[in-house]
Amino acid sequence: MGIKVAKFGGTSVADVIQLAKLKDIVTKDEERRYVVVSAPGKRYEGDSKITDLLFLCKTHIEHNFPFEQVLQVVCDRYTAVYVGLGLEHYLSEYFSKIRRKLV
Question: Could you tell me the pTM of the whole model?
Answer without folding.
Answer: 0.84
